[in-house]
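Q: I'm building a small set of examples for a reading group on sequence design. Run inverse folding on the following structure and report the sequence directly after it, with nothing in between.
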């Protein structure tokens, strides 16, 4: 599998996760808020909003599960990709050598010529 294809699939998984989150937020915002007028104090512990939004949206949990499965599938490639690590180290090393060469050339031509 090419590097570009893996990168595109990782991006697709991230977009699916983001869309599932947006769907859950839309559902959470569209749930009508009914004002409660009572003399009893409100409960001190409230369930998290994510739990309410997830339970209210039938499509969101399946989308979240799909996104989670895709993220787990490609997360290992992201963490354990020695080619990218090797390429980054090599570029960092070459960049350091170039910077050192520029500094040495600037000192040589600035002070000794």
């Amino acid at each position: 599998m090419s590097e570009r294809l893996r990168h595109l699939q990782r991006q697709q998984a991230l977009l699916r996760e983001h869309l599932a989150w947006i769907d859950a937020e839309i559902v959470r915002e569209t749930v009508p808020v009914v004002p409660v007028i009572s003399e009893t104090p409100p409960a001190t512990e409230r369930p998290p909003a994510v739990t309410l939004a997830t339970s209210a949206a039938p499509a969101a949990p399946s989308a979240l599960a799909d996104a989670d499965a895709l993220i787990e599938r490609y997360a290992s490639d992201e963490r354990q990709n020695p080619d990218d690590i090797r390429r980054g180290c090599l570029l960092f090393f070459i960049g350091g050598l170039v910077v050192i060469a520029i500094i040495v050339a600037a000192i040589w031509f600035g002070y000794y010529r």
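The chain is about 75% helix and 0% strand.
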